[in-house]
Specification:
Chain lengths: ~300, ~375
């Protein structure tokens, strides 16, 4: 469905995308995972035919994003990172407008958006600007879907949305995928990565790893312990100083300690931390997740130059 | 076609829902016409004058009566001696003094007959205007008296064609029209396109199958309609409130207004292809369009008295060409035979900017 080969894009001296290649199969949710500034938005704008790559080529359903951009604009649904609907128009007016612009009507493709739009219906006369973050996102998704695109491009759809709405949103994406739609989505949230079929970890315009989320985490070779105490800041400092600990960083309420020395057990860490004078200490085994992999890969990239 | 109408509908919704836009669109023309008409008026009425009249005969009384009955002057003080005049001027109670000689009636009509008019030049514009009024009235009086008595007289001829009272309204109604249409057509369109860029909606519009020409036409059509309505309001107010005539063809006036709006709209689009934010668009149109329209087109300051470089720059301003069209049609009643050149220049300007903006309008970000 989507094939990207050797795409590069620079803004002056800054390389936003550096020789990116990947492919996305039909009916797949593919995630571009990376922090702000990794190059995600540039990639989306190139695929949405809004930006020209400096080098390389991209094809969507056999159409070139540069040469065939006019034909392509009928085939893709694009939801930019920022909320990009008319805040002074109502929910229904926004949807009608985008349907008309794409030469279709709400009725013609209602089936596709029905599960999402049904939730919006009670608010259909409300101005889009007065909707909650989650509702805005659902409306934007409806507007991007209204012309029945083959490929959906969602640039950071989760930003500014509460966790419950985010989960609902991902359920909708999976339903759409099961209906045959191909979805390319970007997110800075590592927890959303696990919901994709395949992901590419993006950092400084380069792909550090690309696979299914399970395989990426499975490739993480070293044991991880999650630890917490009353003084988290000092705990991280102390663990970093402990022999056999390769790295330690904050991870939600806990700190993740990555070990070089496989012989260390959680009791060893507990004892060490208590000797350092920590109170309310907890240490437990942890599974590596995408964020751990991301941090490890990022460190490797920087040390290798 | 359907997506085009959807676009226009959306645009009207934007306008109707934004109170600020509505105020500019509908309040501004009315307020400007009234402001220029009543406040910034260089006509002076009921100016206070003082008279020193030692002769107190029928001739001097008649002349004072004529001055006062003109409506421009009001007798504020009878001076007992010339020395009181200084105090009256200083206190600001009077704007002009009239000083008669002794035995005015006997001498009036003689070659050396004199009446002195003294103006308060601390406000030079007002002083010149008042002295001109008074001179004209004295001249009239002289003429009437010469007819009646047959005495030799000093002839003063001051005549103004078309606007004998030099009514300011004849100047500012066309001026306000050039300004309002520039404001609504150019500034408002450039702001609304810039708003789409600022809000990120342009990104979605560009990804849609809409062609640039659709976006441009969709954006401008509502403003063309509204501008036309505004032009109508300004002309009607000029006629009904300020008694301006419409001597020429209303159809030609409408047509040339549409041509001017076309120039203004293409300027607005051109600005919006450059400006990325609403604020930038506003500054560019205020400084680049509204200021020159007001200052250099001959609306407020006569172009004849400008230094040559400014006159040349003035030629590049659409209002410079549109202003004579309105005056020509409304006041002089002339038609295409005189105005074709101005219309041609305006059409050319519009086409140039339209081509430039279409070329500048980016299909991508």
């Amino acid at each position: 469905m989507l094939s990207i080969s050797n795409i590069s894009k620079s803004y002056g001296a800054i390389k936003a995308l550096d020789d990116i290649s990947f492919e996305v199969a039909s009916g797949e949710i593919f995630g571009l995972i990376g922090p702000d500034g990794a190059g995600k938005t540039s990639m989306f704008r190139i695929l949405a035919t809004l930006l020209l790559p400096d080098q390389g080529a991209a094809k969507i359903a056999g159409l070139d994003v540069v040469r065939d951009y006019k034909a392509l604009r009928h085939r893709i649904g694009y939801m930019p990172g920022r909320f990009s609907l008319y805040q002074d128009l109502s929910v229904a007016e926004n949807l009608e407008f985008f349907a008309a612009v794409f030469g279709t009507s709400i009725e013609a493709n209602y089936q596709l958006i029905a599960p999402i739009y049904d939730q919006l219906k009670p608010f259909k006369d409300r101005r889009a600007g007065a909707l909650s973050g989650g509702m805005k996102q659902k409306l934007a998704l409806c507007c991007a879907l209204i012309h029945k695109p083959d490929l959906l491009l969602l640039d950071e759809p989760g930003t500014g949305v509460d966790p419950v709405s985010r989960k609902e949103f991902w359920d909708m994406l999976r339903d759409l995928r099961d209906g045959g739609l191909t979805i390319l989505v970007s997110t800075p949230y590592m927890d959303e990565a696990a919901l994709c079929d395949r992901v590419a970890l993006l950092q400084n315009g380069r792909i550090m790893a690309m696979d299914t989320p399970e395989k990426i985490t499975a490739a993480f070779s070293r044991p991880i312990f999650a630890a917490r105490s009353a003084d988290m800041y000092r705990l991280i400092q102390d663990l970093r100083a402990m022999p056999g600990v390769a790295d330690c960083y904050a991870f939600g309420e806990f700190a993740h300690a990555v070990l070089d020395d496989r012989s260390l057990k959680s009791s060893d860490l507990l004892q060490y931390l208590q000797e350092c004078g920590h109170t309310e200490v907890q240490v437990k085994n942890a599974e590596a997740n995408i964020e751990d992999c991301f941090i490890e890969l990022m460190k490797k990239e920087t040390t290798h130059g | 076609m359907r997506h085009f109408f959807a676009f226009i509908k959306k645009e009207f919704l934007h306008i109707l829902r934004d109170r600020r836009t509505l105020m500019i669109l509908f309040g501004m023309p009315v307020v400007q016409v009234l402001l220029f008409g009543f406040v910034l008026n260089n006509e002076i009425k009921n100016a206070a004058i003082a008279v020193y009249d030692p002769s107190k005969d029928e001739a001097s009384t008649a002349l004072v009566g004529k001055l006062v009955s003109s409506g421009y002057f009001r007798l504020a003080q009878n001076l007992k001696g010339p020395e009181e005049m200084e105090a009256a001027f200083r206190s600001g109670k009077i704007k002009m003094a009239v000083v008669f000689p002794n035995e005015f009636a006997k001498n009036a009509g003689q070659p050396d007959a004199r009446v002195q008019l003294i103006g308060d030049a601390s406000d030079p514009n007002a002083a010149v205007t008042l002295l001109n009024y008074a001179q004209a009235i004295v001249g009239d009086w002289q003429q009437e008296r010469a007819k009646a008595i047959g005495a030799p007289r000093l002839e003063i001829i001051t005549r103004m064609r078309y606007n004998p009272e030099q009514k300011a309204v004849f100047n500012f109604v066309p001026g306000v029209m050039t300004l309002i249409l520039m404001l609504v057509s150019a500034m408002m369109t450039s702001i609304t396109i810039a708003r789409e860029k600022e809000m990120g909606t342009m990104e979605v519009l560009l990804v849609s199958p809409l062609k640039p020409i659709h976006i441009i036409l969709g954006k401008t059509t509502p403003y063309l309609v509204l501008s036309f309505f505004n032009a109508l309001v300004v002309v009607l107010m000029g006629m009904l409130v300020f008694g301006m005539p419409l001597r020429g063809s209303a159809g030609l006036l409408a047509l040339s207004s549409v041509v001017y709006m076309f120039v203004a709209l293409s300027l607005g689009i051109f600005i919006s292809t450059r400006a990325q934010t609403q604020q930038a668009a506003m500054f560019m149109s205020a400084l680049g369009l509204l200021m020159p329209t007001m200052l250099l087109s001959g609306f407020i300051f006569p172009r004849e008295s400008m230094p040559l470089p400014l006159q040349v720059i003035g030629n590049a301003i659409p209002a410079t060409w549109f202003n004579p069209i309105i005056k020509g049609i409304m006041i002089k009643g002339v038609g295409l035979e005189v105005l074709w050149k101005n219309l041609l220049v305006l059409t050319g300007m519009g086409l140039v900017f339209l081509v430039l903006s279409l070329r500048n309008f980016k299909d991508r970000l």
